[in-house]
Write a sequence for this structure.
């Protein structure tokens, strides 16, 4: 799936795949390997993600939503006076794949992942407001 997404992004942006690889300092020989189904190295994957401003999950075919990172990477934003967006990801000590969720929680996570950045910030503000109200009352 990665190879198809990479070629698609190159086409959509009117760029030659070999030129993209050259721009990020990767060998054009990777194209043949990827087409054959070889894995892409994480550092190259990250650079391609940044080059096209799409998520790694999109490149790997885990989602059909490109999830533009521009709003997160290029600005700090406060939505409705609440949560401040940060430029770097936050790690909470374990990965989501290591945690067992009930079906409702899993559905909530899937819905959240498909939201725009602004919608995610609004949801976070609502959650924080709700949890503060519970803690005070």
């Amino acid at each position: 799936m990665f190879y198809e997404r990479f070629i698609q992004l190159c086409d959509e942006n009117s760029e030659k795949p070999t030129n993209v690889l050259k721009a990020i300092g990767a060998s054009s020989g990777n194209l043949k390997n990827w087409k054959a189904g070889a894995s892409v190295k994480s550092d190259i994957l990250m650079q391609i993600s940044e080059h096209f401003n799409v998520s790694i999950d999109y490149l790997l075919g885990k989602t059909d939503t490109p999830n533009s990172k521009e709003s997160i990477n290029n600005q700090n934003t406060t939505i409705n006076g609440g949560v401040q967006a940060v430029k770097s990801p936050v790690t909470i000590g374990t990965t989501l794949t290591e945690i067992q969720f009930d079906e409702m929680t899993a559905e909530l996570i899937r819905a959240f992942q498909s939201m725009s950045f602004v919608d995610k910030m609004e949801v976070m503000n609502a959650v924080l407001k709700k949890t503060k109200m519970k803690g005070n009352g």
